Amino acid sequence: MWQNLHSAFERKFLLGWMVALLCVGLLLWPISRVEAQETFEYTQSVKDLGRGGVRIPSETDGSMMFYNPAMLAFTKGIRWSVLDLGLGAGGTLGAGEQSVLQNAGNLATLYGNNIWLGGMGRTAMSFPNWGMAIYGNLTVDALLKNPAFTTMSVAADEDYGFLIGGAFNLGPSLAFGVNFKRVTRTGGTANITTAQLVAGGNLNTLLTGSVAGLPVGTGYGDDVGLIWKPNVTANPIVSICWQDLGYTSFVSTGPVAPPPIEDNLVLGLSAHQDMLGVGWGAGLEYRHIDNIDVDISKKFNAGLELDLALVDLRYGFYQGWPGYGASIDLWFLSIDAAYYTVELGPTAGQQPDYRYQVGISFEAGFDPFFNLSDIGGGGPGGRNRHLKQRR
Prior knowledge:
Elements: H1 2-28, H2 46-50, E1 78-91, E2 115-127, E3 130-145, E4 151-171, E5 174-193, H3 194-200, H4 203-211, E6 216-228, E7 237-243, E8 264-275, E9 278-286, E10 300-308, E11 311-318, E12 321-329, E13 334-343, E14 352-366, E15 372-376, E16 385-386
Antiparallel strand pairs: 1-2, 1-14, 2-3, 3-4, 4-5, 5-6, 6-7, 7-8, 8-9, 9-10, 10-11, 11-12, 12-13, 13-14, 14-15, 15-16
């Protein structure tokens, strides 16, 4: 009887929390701003992007606090996401087209073609009910415009941050968590002139160099999250997280501060299962619930993953466009790749920007005495290779 009452309380609490977040989001709609057509996401790994950006929470994933800090309440043992690194490029300017920059008359062929460079790196350690992480993100978008006085407009953000999170159980299957973070951002917009484009030779050097002169600032933010994780087959999980609650704004010592990180209210549904050395995972996310400036067609992400021993295959829909991913499991680490599309237009299906990312990831688990218990790249259920226990 007590268990039935407890389960009823959990369901009512979860429903009430969802309604409360959605109501507050509706109240905050009028303060949303339009800065760019691209909808930025800051907590995605290469594996995530291969399955449509969808995150699949697991108690054996040391980096799940990036997605929802409430997952820390379900952490078993000590989980260390030792390294998760990704580098990517996108747009229509390939390496063989760098010669276009040697002649100002050829620049017209680049008009309207977005060029993107990006990367991420992070390490995170999770303990039962708390965790900490260090991360870095870089995104650079460049677009040639103004034919009369040709310039390349560059929008870039480079972040370095530290997180500490905590969580506690509200019931056997329900948990609440909070992240606190400190972020240093170099970001804003800059212009590269025709003379710089023609004389610079290498566009990648010009793009990354333009980031150095952008405003620098430091900001403090927080994430709040709730997870419902019933102990049943297929491990279904309902996740609600409000990332960067109330915006994460930056304070600069200079005259201009970098742009803030907008808040992101996310509802996620996922499931995963692992048996006999193979596994599967699937998920659906509804993002930017409180942001009226983001069209609803760009708010839904969906994906699935199959773990087939040494190879993982992924497929999903990212902002209305299909995406693909794969990993090769090399016992102690995973080599990851993703091909996906970002929507640059106001609605899905208008202006695709094709992007590629490659990376490596490495997970490890420890028992309470810090003895290594498992190691590997992990799967949708955090599938790692177990080591022989020391006795």
